[in-house]
Structure formats: structure tokens, C-alpha cells
Design goal:
Strand content of chain B: 15-25%
Structural class of chain B: alpha/beta
CATH topology of chain A: MetI-like fold
Number of strands of chain A: 0
Order of helices and strands of chain A: HHHHHHHH
Distance between the termini of chain B: 41 Å
Oligomer: heterodimer
Helix content of chain A: over 70%
Number of helices of chain A: 8
Strand order of the largest sheet of chain B: 6-7-8-3-9-10
Bound molecules: adenosine-5'-triphosphate, magnesium ion
Helix content of chain B: 25-40%
Shape of chain B: globular
Strand content of chain A: under 5%
Radius of gyration of chain A: 21 Å
Number of helices of chain B: 9
Largest sheet of chain B: 6 strands, mixed
Radius of gyration of chain B: 18 Å
Structural class of chain A: mainly alpha
Shape of chain A: flat
Amino acid sequence: MGLNFDFIVKYLPWYVDAAILTVRVAFLGILFSLVVGIICSAVQYYHIPVIRTIVSVYIEISRNTPLLVQLFFLYFGLPKIGILLSAETCAVVGLTFLGGSYMSESIRSGLESVEKSQIESAASLGMGKVLTMKEVIFPQALAVSVPGICANVIFLIKETSVVSGIALADLMYVANDLIGLYYETDETLIMLVLFYLIILLPISAFASFIERRLRYAGFGN
Amino acid sequence: MEERIQLKVKGLVKRFGSETVLDGIDLDVHKGEVVVVLGPSGCGKSTLLRCMNGLESLSEGNIFLDGEEVSSSGKKITMLRQKIGMVFQSYDLFPHKNIMDNITLAPVKVQKRPKKDVESQAEKLLKRVGLWEKRKSYPRELSGGQKQRVAIIRALCMNPEVMLFDEVTAALDPEMVREVLDVMLELADGGMTMVIVTHEMQFARAIADRVIFLDGGNIVEDLPPEEFFTAPKTQRAKDFLQTFAYEKRRTDTN
Ligand SMILES: Nc1ncnc2c1ncn2[C@@H]1O[C@H](COP(=O)(O)OP(=O)(O)OP(=O)(O)O)[C@@H](O)[C@H]1O
Ligand SMILES: [Mg+2]
């Protein structure tokens, strides 16, 4: 398999631009997913009436529809009722819509893993709800949630490949484009894989580092 | 012991669904008094203590600390809980904090006391129970008996007026029971007002000013320890003590 290195060098900048876009969309989507996830998991954890039902409906919809469908809805559907969003905004919103539910479930499983006796022990020391959350529940929940959160981060970065479906020039889109234009399939695909690996491998390594650290900290009575 | 009533339970009824666990409890605990609560398993001893600390809502009745009502909701309850220390069977130290941080957390964050003051108080108490060397350790690195002594110190550093103990030695290996009971005896000698649930009969007899026997949701005996252990009035208390006498005979012959 002789690779055409001229081609690779020539179109490298396309990939770099696309990678920057992919990272930007993923970063914002993941950040907002965490915010949505924290809010939704708190609502469920504290059994806040009404809002809790809305949250579980959201989680079901989010987890049971493909991201591409969610993006089509945002990009092609919303304009019909007069809401026009740029493709990149749609991508971030879509990723947040999807990621929020995954993050929420990960965080909630962490919160619920903290034993009731821990909360009562804090209460018997006169600690209020907020202080108990901050000092007792949250740190212990985090240790349980982090592996799930890390898995979600990687999952969401990979899911960004779907945004090419709404004509956003991410890595997937550029690769598709180049194949369509020049039929240099090998080079194009190798570059695509390499760029995803460049983005994902460090994050994976960082995630397993954190997980190991948490395991060493492994409190548990 | 003074005559001042520190903790007052008045007409306490506690139901779980249709099950009435406590059925009209009246109890006055005076300042400096040590009350031991005995009774068969499931009679509501833990529930009584949890009600006293506002961990359970009351179905009926009231509980007063120094004349102030303990109700299980609102800001007032967190104020009152600072004056009632409670130690549980399962220690419930915070696993992600070291021993010193476990002890200082609430006094510093809740009572807003200077960390230095709390630490020097903790130092004195830790030294007294021989655990000063463990101050930087995490709970998982301690034995059950050591954890339980830390849990007691953690409650004590809130400077409570009353201490509640719910079977604090039940989860411990026999050789560790003693070290925890000694700490409690010392506390009692220091004049702490205490309500203790225990299955250690000899300890109960040694530490109690009064023994309360709970059965069927009511206090059926309320006697000084010597009288309760030698001449209980009700058949139910006699039967209860009999079960322990049996165990004792068994272990004696071994
Ligand atoms: N949260 C709860 N929901 C329903 N029932 C409960 C609850 N807590 C306690 N009970 C019931 O109340 C009764 C008294 O329980 P409690 O734990 O107070 O007994 P106890 O005297 O402390 O028993 P033990 O000596 O075994 O610790 C039991 O029948 C128990 O099943
Ligand atoms: Mg009990």
C-alpha cells in the first residue's frame, strides 16, 4: 500500500481545523452535559416533586433517541417554528441533550451509593443539608461516579462524529469530503483514525490515571 | 446529679405505617443522669434514641431539651442536634477524611469554632484514649474498637449536653468491647448526661443510675440498676434477664 504523502501534507490543515472544531464542540458539549447532569441528578436525588418527573421523561427521551435524530430535529425541525440555530450551536446543544442524561445517571449512581448512615451521622453532628452534601456526600459520590463520567466523556467525543450529518466540518465531515473529491480513501481514513486517536488517547490515559488514584484512595470502611 | 430536667420525652408515639413501635413514652432524664434502656430486639430502643435526636419524626408527643422542643424539621433541629451527641453501632466515621478531620469537621464548620481550639480539645481526648498516633490515619486503617472511640470523641468535641449511645459495642469483637466501655464509664464519672442502649448487662449495671425496660412500645420498668437486676417487677423483665442468665451459664461451663 503506497501512501500518497503529498496528499497527506496538503490536506493536513483541513484535518487540523476539523480537529479543532471537533474538540471545541466536544468540550462545550461535555461541559454543559456535566452542568445538566449535576442539576438533573440533584433533582432526582432529593426527590423534588414535579421537576423530577420532567427530568425522568427527559432522560428517557435523551437515552432512547440517536444523536443524529436529535441534531436533525434541532437543525431542520426548529427553523420550522422560527428558531434558527447555527450548525455549531445545534451540535453543542444536541451533544448536551444527549450527554446530560448520561452524566446525570453516572452522578446519581454515585450519590445513591453513599450510605444513609453517613448522612444521619452528619445530621447528628448538627450539619445542615448543604454542608452534608459538600463535605460528606459529594466527595464519596465522586469516587464512585468518576469512572462513569470518564466513560461518558470518551463516548461523547466519539459521538461528535455524527455532527457531520448537519454539515458541520468536523473530522468525519472532512474525511467524507476528501473521499468524495479525490478517492484517496486510504490516506483519508488513516488520517481520520490518527486524529481521533490523538484526541482520545491522552484523555483515556488521563481517565485511567484518575481511576487508579481513586482506587488507591479507596476509602470504604 | 442535679434535679434539673435536661431531656424530657412526653407522650411519644411513633408509628411506621400501621405498626405502632412506641406507644406513649414519658421519660425525664436529669442533668448528669445515666439512663440505660433495655428491652428485647425490635422493641423500639433505637427508634426512641433516633426520635430524641430528631432523626425520626414523631407521630405524636414532644421531646424537649432544656425546655426547648426537638422537632425533626427546620433550622432549630440542627441547633439542637449540636447539643445532643449520638454514637451509632456502625461508627459511621467519614471514610474520606482522616481521624483528625473527622473530629474537627462539625465543630469548625457548624459551630464556627477556631480550628486550633478544636484540635487541642481533640488532642487531649485522643491522648486519653491512646489514639493520638492515629490522628492522620483514615478510618479504614483502624480497628472497630478504635473507630468507635473516635466516633465518641467526634461527638464529644461538639461539647454536647447529652450523649446518646445505640449499641456502640454490638459490632465489636469481644476484646475491643472493654476499651469502648471504659471510655463511656469515664464520661459518666465526668458527669455527662447519657442515654445508653446496650446488650452488655454487667456494663449496664455498673454505669446506670436508672434502668428503663422497654416492651410493647411502653416503659414497663423504671428502676435503679440494683433493683432491676435483682428484683424486676414484671414477668417480661424477668424473662428478658433470664435469656442473659442462660448465656452466662453456657459460657461459664465452657
Ligand atoms: N424506618 C423504619 N420503617 C419501618 N419500620 C421500622 C423502621 N425502623 C424501625 N422499624 C421497626 O420498628 C421496630 C423497632 O425497631 P428498633 O430498631 O427501634 O428496635 P430495637 O429495639 O432497637 O431493636 P434491636 O435491639 O434489634 O436493635 C421494629 O419492629 C422495626 O421493624
Ligand atoms: Mg436497635
